[in-house]
Amino acid sequence: MRYVILVLGIIISLHFILSFSHEDYGRATSISNLKNTITGAASHQPPYKAGVPEDYYYHSNGTAPGPRANAAFVILARNSDLNGIVFSMKQMEDRFNKKFQYPYVFLNDDDFSDEFKRRITALTDAKVEFGKIPRDHWYQPDWIDEEKASKARDEMVKAQVIYGGSVPYRNMCRFNSGFFFRHELLDKYKYYWRIEPDVNFYCDLDYDPFLIMQNEKKVYGFTVSLYEYETTIPTLWDAVKGDTIIPSCSLVRSDRPPEFMDENPDMLQEGNALGFISDDAGGTYNRCHFWSNFEIGDLDLWRSDAYMKFFEHLDKKGGFYYERWGDAPVHSIGAALFAKKEQIHFFNDIGYKHNPFQHCPQGDAHTKGKCWCDPSDNFDYHWYSCLARYDKMFT
After folding, report:
1. Considering only CA atoms, which of 196, 175, 171 is closest in space to residue 73?
2. What is the pTM of this model?
3. Which of 70, 95, 221, 395 could be a cystine partner for 296, CB 3.0 to 4.6 Å?
4. Is 22 left (phi over 0), alpha (psi -120 to 50) or beta?
5. CB-hemisphere CA count at 13 Å for 85?
6. Buried b (16+ CB within 10 A) or exposed e, 134-167
7. 97 secondary structure, DSSP code
8. How far is the C-alpha of 178 from the C-alpha of 301, rounded, in Å?
């Protein structure tokens, strides 16, 4: 009996030593984390429903102690966006970054003005870098058939498709889909948080979402999900799936040229999130996507061989210009195919609005975050939202 007590004493002592000397071990074995793991597994709920362990929170004022992830905010902007960027960035600083001091990377297809730099750097004590986008990453490629692209734009204008006639919008979608993560200023970072002009951040964020991404092995985070306009992506899924027969999908092969899945069937991640983007096991695309104006992500997802081949295949199809493929469906399909479903995270407690849709945390999350959005104005389970499809993957 004495030896049993002695062994137990040694084990308990080692546990406490490791808890204090190794933060990841302490967090993984904390009571709150074990409770969340147990209850989440037992209830078959989406992981976000377990909440963020209290260990992550820092409720005091001043700079939060502890480790930081290798991360930065990424903001694509023009000089004319200055006031809108100031509006968004001031909220981010007040609600989160004054405590955590993550750096900012601003990207522009032109040179930033001195006024832009002066007003931006005055808002934060964090590091700020300004970069120019390489010309071949931004502008419509020379190999695009402009006559065909122009005709497609004219047809979309007649159909009143939003941004249907805009070439700069298409440039932006292509850049965000396949090039932003290649910019030299982002080479040193692993995680990013995308911020747009004129958005609202409604809640105090007293924990570090980058550490959630890092410690929980998440690769993509969102706050709003919805359906894409069908007229903007009529051939996108054809270019992805081709004639590949996915298990449970009964669609048969045809004699079309091979598409991405035909050529790369081994690149799909086991346990992926295909159920979010397709209601028939990959036969068709249901048009659900994560609204990419808010993204917290792992840059290595986009840098991976699978995603790079995926983007290059889509880019060669010309759909960014012959149609109006957006970075939201492209990123969403990529994340759904190349990540495990548990690696895609809904940040339920981050109140956010990009006009016209907003996510407003509910119940205790609204109270804990001191949110100033109206809880009744919440897009989560609106008929045009895809959050219910995300939830369904885990039930």
Report:
1. 196
2. 0.87
3. 221
4. beta
5. 27
6. eeebbbbeeeeeeeebeebbeebeeeebebbbee
7. I
8. 11
Alpha-carbon distance of 381 to 376, in angstroms, equals 11
- Are 107 and 180 contacting, i.e. CB atoms less than 8 angstroms apart? yes
SS3 356: coil
Environment class of residue 206 by beta-carbon count within 10 Å: exposed (0-12), middle (13-18) or buried (19+)? buried
Average pLDDT of the chain, as a whole number: 90
What does the alpha-carbon distance between residue 125 and residue 62 come to, in Å, rounded to a whole number? 12
- Can you give the length of the chain in residues? 395
The token pair at 74 is: 């990424």
With bands split at pLDDT 50, 70 and 90, how would you rate the model's confidence at 257? confident
148 to 136, 156, 274, 391: CA distances (angstroms): 20, 13, 32, 40
73: its two tokens:
């905010």
Which of 222, 166, 170, 175 minimizes the C-alpha distance to 339? 222
- Cβ neighbours for 2, distance < 8 A, ≥ 6 positions apart: none
* Cα–Cα distance for residue pair 147/137, rounded to 1 Å: 21
Rounded-to-integer distance, Cα 73 and Cα 103, Å: 6
Task: Look at domain 71-240+266-392 and name its CATH class.
Answer: alpha beta
Mean pLDDT of 268-280: 97
DSSP H stretches of helix in the chain: 2-21, 23-28, 31-43, 82-92, 98-100, 114-121, 135-138, 146-158, 167-178, 209-215, 236-241, 260-263, 274-277, 299-303, 305-317, 319-322, 327-338, 363-368, 387-392
Where do the domains of the chain lie? 2-43, 71-240+266-392
- Distance CA(22)–CA(16), nearest Å, equals 10
Q: 9 or 233: which carries more pLDDT confidence?
A: 233
